[in-house]
Amino acid sequence: MNKILAKPVDKKHDLFSIAELAGEFNISTRTIRFYESKGLIVPDRVGTTRVFRRRDRTRLLLILRGKRLGFTLKEISEYLELYDADQTQATQTQHLLERVNSRLDMLNAQKADLEIAIQELESMQKYALDQLETQTV
User: Fold this and answer.
1) pTM score of the predicted model
2) Fewer CB within 10 Å, N side or C side of the chain?
3) What residues have CB less than 8 Å from 21, skipping those under 6 apart?
4) What is the DSSP code string of the chain?
5) Are 62 and 76 in contact (CB under 8 A)?
C-alpha cells in the first residue's frame, strides 16, 4: 500500500518550491499544478515562481491523504473549506466523521462482496480441479 509520508519539516522552513513539495510527497509537479488549478492550494507568486507556504504544504498533505482514502476532490474541497472557515474545527470534525463513516460503510460492504466472490471462485476452482482429476483417472 502506498502511504503518504511527509518528511519532518524544519521549523524555520516556511517557504517551499514546487520541486521541494513534489520531492517531499513523491508526486509530480504536474500533480501539484493540477490541485492548484482546482483551487485546492493557492501558492503565492514571486514573479512567475510559485512559492508555497506551510498552509499549502498542510493542505497538500490533506489532499493526498484524502485521495488515498478514496475521497473525491469535491469531498476534499468541502473539507478544506470547512477547515478554513471554522477555527474551532467542530464543523470540520463533524463533517469528517460523517464522510469517514460513509466511506467505512461502503468499504465494508465491498469487503463482504469480495469475500463472497472469493468463496464462490474457490468453490468453482475446487469443482474444476475435481472434474479434471476424475477425467484423467
Assistant:
1) 0.68
2) N
3) 27, 32, 52, 56, 57, 60
4) -----PPP--TT--EE-HHHHHHHHT--HHHHHHHHHTTS---EEETTEEEEEHHHHHHHHHHHHHHHTT--HHHHHHHHHHHHH-TT-HHHHHHHHHHHHHHHHHHHHHHHHHHHHHHHHHHHHHHHHHHHHHHH-
5) yes
Domains for the chain: give ranges and CATH numbers.
1-79 (1.10.1660.10)
C-alpha cell of residue 114 = 469480495
For 31, the grid coordinates are: 500533480
Q: Which residues pair with 16 in a beta bridge?
A: 52
Task: Give the whole-angstrom CA distance, residue 137 versus residue 129.
Answer: 12
Rounded Cα–Cα distance for residues 41 and 32 (Å): 8
Pairing of strands 44-46, 49-53: antiparallel
> pLDDT tens digit string along 67-117?
998 899 999 998 888 776 667 778 778 888 888 899 899 999 999 999 999
How far apart CA 128 and CA 52 sit, in angstroms, is 59
